[in-house]
Amino acid sequence: MVRLHCVINGSNMRLIISEKANTAKKVSQFLAEGPVKEGKHRSVPHQTFTWKGEETVSVGLKGHVLNPEYPEEYSNWQKVEPRELIDAEILKSVSEKGVADAVRSLSKKADRVVIATD
């Protein structure tokens, strides 16, 4: 088995993404090998700590960050044949811009991402 380790921009940081901010905080308190530093990115709280000897950042989402939407011609569900929806284009809209920006920014600094959701 070949194990790859990548370092992006000289970074060696693990990012843990949880469903909620309070879950992210509990994860950091449980895993931390020392103090947990509280921080914010565009008003989105995150925690920085050391886990297994590596810098780790834990951040929580606020429900669904991206929402799937259909084009306008499908807006009246009563007039749409359900089979048409199978091949219809699905648009994405960001429901929590601050959270999306925080995750995007933090993930650029990470060499690994852990999705800690149910």
UniProtKB/TrEMBL annotation:
Pfam families: Toprim. Residues 15-118 form the Toprim domain. Keywords: Isomerase. One of its GO terms (molecular function) is DNA binding. Signal peptide: none annotated. Gene3D superfamilies: 3.40.50.140. SUPFAM superfamilies: Prokaryotic type I DNA topoisomerase (SSF56712). It comes from the Bacteria. Its EC number is 5.99.1.2. InterPro entries: Topo_IA (IPR000380), Topo_IA_core_domain (IPR023405), TOPRIM_dom (IPR006171). One of its GO terms (biological process) is DNA repair. This is DNA topoisomerase I.
